[in-house]
Amino acid sequence: MEGDDVTLREQLFHDRVRETIICVLLFSSLYILCYLVLTHYRRNADFATDNDEDATVNKIALWLCTFSLSVSVGAVLLLPISILSNEVLLSFPHSYYMQWLNGSLIHGLWNLVFLFSNLSLVFFLPFAYFFTESEGFAGSKKGVMARVYETAVVLLLLTLLVLGMVWVASALLNDTSARESLYDLWEYYLPYLYSCISLSGVLLLLLCTPLGLSRMFSVTGKLLVKPRLLEDLDDTMSCAMFEEAALSRKLNTETSCWINVNVDVLKTQFLTIQARRMALEMRRRASPWQRNLGYPFAMLLLLALTVVCVLIVCFHVLELLFDETALPRGMEDPLLGAASFSMFGSLGAAVQVILILYLMLSSVVGFYSSPLFSNLLPRAQDTTLTQIIGNCVCLLVLSSALPVFSRTLGITGFDLLGDFGRYNWLGNFHIVFLYNVLFAGLTSACLINTLTWAVQRELIRAFGLHKLPLTVSRSAIPLKLLLANGLSKIQ
Known about the structure:
By secondary structure, the protein is mainly α. The protein is about 75% helix and about 0% strand. The protein contains 14 helices and 2 strands. The radius of gyration is 28 Å and the shape is globular. The relative contact order is 0.12.
């Protein structure tokens, strides 16, 4: 018996060491990748100043932002890794090389991401912001430590303010429990605060994802070469070259003092025409396969993914009406390798992973496309440290809410692990049902609006009606004019 106990303890020790090594390697890889991304967007002037103190403070803040961004990427990969791990264990149940992939490892990853995401959102990123804005207390010795002391005091006061607001909100909702649990910080207030943060992230995803799903078509269209539809590309290319040459001559020629020329407007027009000419050159150099098949295939793929998302959500709405088990809930012991989380097996699990990543990408596109957050869009080598911190906060809120978002919409049947399943509002039928209905309705409306505008815009451009001198409304273009103009171009 004693020998068996020693063997069991050794096995548990080796399992824990192996899981720790895997987590450290995974997080180190994500940290290096996120650091390269942030160094691509950061403004180099903020880190090459003559003041060594400011440069050190900016580096520390950048390290904290890198840590938070790597946690965000880890939160995005939680569900895909869990779903794929379950399918791998189903396919190779007795493989020696897959023994490291177990439920304990996946559960540990969920707990670590939950812990680090909340630490980053509550402490690290606010510390980075206040650290860059601090100068030290008046009368104290200047230096990095003086800024650290000031930042710690400000962060402590902010923490007390937030906890007070949480207590007031809980007292308004439930007076008796708030009075009884005034000193119960760990078991009551922190889960309540996490529930508020997750609910705000899920609501932000509800606003950004439908907009992003509709914007994905235009963003993808800018990256690909569109097919020619009743268009003389050589003629359009020649006109663009002539316009560019004329504007270049106006900019390089010294004008008379009697002629008022707005140089800024000319430069803007010149850059616009130049970008248009370069796009036309790229279209002319593209192969027929890339030009005629790449763009339609990408558009059909995006349309299929969006329609599948809407259909899954509509089916989940029906499940919520007839089955209480369809509500999202927590799971303490993940039984990986027991059964597939999709009724279609491995193919359905792969589709779930693709849809989760597609929804996350669409939410990011919709976030930066919205008028409220368009100013946060990072620019290569020209993004201030304050903007980097703001982007990290927003991306962390979106990514940490992605597992709850995907499970609430019924995209996957994988239940939430660890503290992700402890949110108070997950078991509320009315909130979950209304959320699914709103998502399906907003996504359908945005998709229909985008498709109708895109089809009419392409028809107007193909038939040459965009060259008309007057602005033409949508209802002012009859179908007969479109057909007549198209037939004349074909002849």
